[in-house]
Amino acid sequence: MCRRHRWKPRFGRGSLARISAPKAIVMSRSAEVAGEFRNPIMRWIGRLGERVWAQWDELRHAAAVIGTVLGTGVRPRYWVRAVRTAFARQVLAIGVEPVGFVGAVAAFVGISVVVQLTFWVGEAGQSQLLGPLLVAVVARELGPVLINLVVMVRSGSAMTTELGVLKINGEVRALEAQGNDPFLHLVMPRVLGMAVSTFCLTIVFILAAFASGYLFAAWMGKGSGDLLLFADTVSSAVQPKDVFNILAKSSLPALFASASCCIGGLGVSGSVTEIPHATQRALTRSVAGLFVISAAVSLLTYL
Predict the structure, then answer these.
(1) Is 93 among the domain residues?
(2) Is the Cβ–Cβ distance between 148 and 246 less than 8 Å?
(3) Which terminus of the chain faces fewer neighbouring Cβ atoms within 10 Å, N or C?
(4) 247-272 pLDDT, tens digit each
(5) Which residues does 47 contact at the CB level (< 8 Å), separation at least 6?
């Protein structure tokens, strides 16, 4: 009988290496693909975290500036003649010079909003809702937001540019060399001046919008035409929380915007070419802070 010999494969180390090589290549390639997939995500998360941390750091810096300004501003001994003069100049430039422009904007808003509300409330037979609607639309929302936008665009950019030029030209160091505090002479008058001016311009805007809307509606024959009735309807709709709302929505965003502009201007170092970028960043933070603060005040006041 012949024995049948079965063929048995013999594997050496080289054979095992050759057989396991494709598997290792596949695993290595899978790891590379997974790494390439994870790396963009991790980089995106890292960049997002850096931006969030940078914004948080700037927010803390602005809050520190506002707190220091308010704490210093209530002490009479810091209001020396030079500081009072700088504060008066800021109020004149921010709160007095744009009164004509604010009055024109208020007239258009009054014509477009007050007349529409007067007409549709009369058509619906709900004349008792005219006062609350006017206060809610014009006084609570449009007035503070529009005036803050006007002040930020007109004065915030100029403030950042002015402080940036002073920093680059070495005038800030010269002020320190003379023994004067740059914070008292440069920052505090601008922050408080913008806050006070914005609040006053908001009141002017609201009164001008109501007056222009009433006059145009009376001229067009819309509404009752009785001035005392219109004034009584609006004034009776104003509540104490509305006064707080107007004060907070006009002053808090202005404080944050002026602090951000001062930080951006005094943070410029190097050349004049950095000033436009600093101005853009300051205005972006100011506008974002305006809407966040307005929404937060509305939620805290009316909910």
Answers:
(1) no
(2) no
(3) N
(4) 999 999 999 999 999 999 998 887 88
(5) none
Entry pTM: 0.79
Number of domains in the chain: 1
Contacts of range 216-225, beta carbons closer than 8 Å, 24 or more positions apart: 216/110, 216/111, 216/114, 216/115, 217/114, 217/115, 217/118, 217/119, 220/115, 222/115, 222/118, 222/119, 222/122, 223/118, 223/119, 223/122, 224/127
52 within some domain: no
- Percent of the chain residues topping a pLDDT of 70: 81
Within a domain: 50 = no
pLDDT tens for 6-52 read 444 444 444 434 434 454 454 555 555 445 545 777 777 777 777 77
Give the DSSP letter string of 76-123. GGG--HHHHHHHHHHHIIIIITTHHHHHHHHHHHIIIIIHHHHHHHHH
Q: Is residue 262 part of a domain?
A: yes
Residue range of the domain that includes 114: 98-302
CA–CA dist 100, 156 (Å, integer): 19
Rounded to an integer, what distance in angstroms lies between the CA atom of residue 187 and that of residue 84?
Answer: 12
Residues 191-245 have pLDDT tens digits of: 999 999 999 999 999 999 888 877 877 777 665 666 777 777 778 878 888 899 9
How far from the centroid of its chain's Cα atoms is residue 109's Cα? Answer: 22
